[in-house]
Design a protein that fits this description.
Layout lengths: L1 H9 L12 H8 L3 H13 L3 E4 L3 E4 L23 E11 L3 H7 L7 E10 L2 E10 L2 H7 L3 H9 L8 E2 L8 H8 L6 E10 L2 H6 L7 E11 L2 E11 L12
Antiparallel strand pairs: 1-2, 3-4, 3-6, 4-5, 5-9, 7-8, 8-9
Length: 247
């Protein structure tokens, strides 16, 4: 809930100086209880993002601080020095899900290009990448012609064999975006959380469903429009992510 409000402030829905909707209205928009919303508003006030005054509501003070990982790198580049290969499990057009519909602002009639990719390091699964790109028409107006054609081609026959991702389009979808549109002004926001591997992914790599995992979610923007949304799941025991502090 905190991140959804932060994202609305960040994308200009509630710019600095604007008032948030009254609590009953905002709780209804978010589909949450007023008590839960009130706790999040308190956290936003403690972080200096908003000011709350009795009888006057909540006013946005400033853009929230970026949480990190805003330098766009494909997940393949974060998994250390081993041999990194990708194995595409699925490539298909999907109706909007709760996740992709919200993060990509998809209309019900639009279809997102979905990729599921296992990223392996030295032959061992290190990351499950679930990535969604916006409708072709949106991509052609925001990111040019080559990228939609490349994504569309992937739908014909998903790769079932591993490929070395270095210098090829056979990696994650984010790698394809960066290869197709270098210097195009892509930006991102990301969050880190904790979850469990789950039954389906656990079965795929012979790990228990309750295996802890790090969850990285990321939304990529260009020209003021979200164009890619992703979930990257890193099971416990995989190589450490290679991250540098922001300066």
């Amino acid at each position: 809930m905190y991140q959804r409000i932060v994202a609305a402030i960040d994308d200009g829905t509630f710019p600095p100086g604007a008032r948030l909707p009254p609590e009953p209205e905002l709780a209804g928009q978010l589909g949450v209880s007023r008590s839960g919303l009130r706790e999040v508003l308190i956290l936003l006030q403690e972080d200096g993002v908003i000011t709350r005054r009795q009888g006057a509501g909540s006013t946005v003070n400033q853009l929230p601080p970026a949480p990190g990982l805003e330098r766009l790198l494909p997940v393949e580049a974060l998994l250390g020095p081993g041999t990194v290969r990708c194995r595409r499990l699925a490539a298909e057009l999907e109706e909007p899900t709760d996740f992709s519909g919200y993060h990509l602002r998809l209309a019900p009639a639009e279809r997102a290009c979905f990729w599921e990719t296992v990223v392996e390091v030295d032959g061992s699964p290190a990351c499950f990448a679930h990535e969604w790109a916006v409708d072709d028409k949106v991509l052609r107006t925001t990111a040019g012609r080559d990228l939609p054609d490349a994504l569309r081609a992937s739908l014909a026959e998903p790769d079932a064999t591993p490929h070395d991702t270095t210098g090829t389009p056979d990696g994650t979808m984010l790698a394809a975006f960066l290869d197709a549109e270098p210097g195009h002004g892509l930006t991102a926001r990301s969050t880190l959380g904790a979850t469990m591997l789950g039954t389906e992914r656990g079965h795929a790599i012979s790990r228990p469903p309750e295996t802890p995992a790090l969850l990285l979610t990321q939304t990529v923007w260009t020209a003021g429009r979200p164009v890619l949304a992703a979930k990257y799941l890193f099971p416990a025991g995989v190589p450490l992510l290679s991250l540098a502090s922001r300066r």
